[in-house]
Amino acid sequence: MTNLHTYIEHTLLKPTATVKDIIELCDEAKKYDFHGVCVNSSYVHLAANELKNHPSKVIATIGFPLGASSTKAKVTEAKKAVKDGADEIDMVINLGFFKSQNTKYVSNEIRAVKKAIDRRQLKVIIETCYLNEAEIIMACEMVRLAGADFVKTSTGFGDKGAQLKDVELMRKKVDGKIGIKASGGIKTANQAIAFIIAGATRIGTSNGVTIVYDPKNHEE
User: Fold this and answer.
1) Which of 58, 87, 132, 156 matches a 20 to 30 Å C-alpha distance to 202?
2) How far is CA 44 from CA 38, 67, 111, 191, 211, in A?
3) Whole-model pTM?
4) Catalytic amino acids?
5) 126: which residues sit within 8 A by CB, 6+ positions away?
6) Can you tell me the distance from the alpha carbon of 162 to that of 32, in angstroms, rounded to the nearest whole number?
7) Contact 182/167 with Cβ under 8 angstroms?
């Protein structure tokens, strides 16, 4: 797949990430023409400056990684990220409320964040490793109806990352109406391509350079 780089959101979300690490992440995004870089919100201003003259997007995480902060906190964080230069927002749903069947709260929270970021794309992380099939279906429908642009599998901090069967299920449910971001544990080109075939329209990974550069990862 010659355009694999265009799917990749080059990601660095570890708590020990330094300024130097983020600059290197952005340099790699420029070198390999990734779709964008995904960083914690505190690093948005730095990443935006580093990518000022390059088409790669800056993606900020909100309520990350637990999703348990208040709606007000998520909205405030999202607004600050946009002000700092974020092009897209990846927010984590309140999983505890969702599993308590308080979907009204979760839906309203998604709408509030979407309203706060205006025209920018919103991806909603549902953390599939904690959900059964029925909950994944319900979450996809909720995310779509709340006006988000993408549903995203994972934070990468849960028990498991993206699973092909979950992405296939998500594709059937969203039916092309919104995008799907597969994230968490994707390390090779063959894995990335398999997720794209399964229905992913974006790939979140910290292994972007290896995926697009290392020939052995393109072996059949």
Assistant:
1) 132
2) 9, 19, 22, 28, 24
3) 0.95
4) 90, 152, 181
5) 93, 95, 98, 136, 139, 140, 143, 151, 152, 153
6) 23
7) yes
Per DSSP, the residues of 66-117 read T--S-HHHHHHHHHHHHHHT-SEEEEE--HHHHHTT-HHHHHHHHHHHHHHH
**For the chain, counts of helices (H) and of strands (E):** 9, 8
Answer whether 161's CB lies under 8 Å from 183's CB: yes
According to DSSP, the residues that pair with 37 across neighbouring strands are: 10, 58
- Sign of the dihedral through C-alpha 220, 180, 11, 14: negative
Residue indicated by tokens 């020939």: 215
DSSP state of 47: H
Q: Identify any residues that bridge with 151 across adjacent strands, giving them in sequence order.
A: 124, 180
Which residues sit opposite 122 in a β-bridge?
Answer: 89
Tokens of 16: 């020990």
User: CB of 79 within 8 A of CB of 40?
Assistant: no
Measured in degrees and rounded to the nearest 5, phi and psi for residue 89 equal -125, 130
Using a pLDDT cut of 70, give the percent of the chain over it.
Answer: 97
Specify whether the CB–CB gap between 92 and 78 falls below 8 A.
Answer: no
Q: Kindly state the tokens that stand for 149.
A: 């642009």
The answer to whether residues 103 and 69 touch, using CB atoms and an 8 Å cutoff, is: no
Residue 58 is encoded by which pair of tokens? 């800056």
Instruction: For residue range 54-106, list pLDDT tens digits in order.
Output: 999 999 999 999 999 999 999 999 999 999 999 999 999 999 999 999 999 99
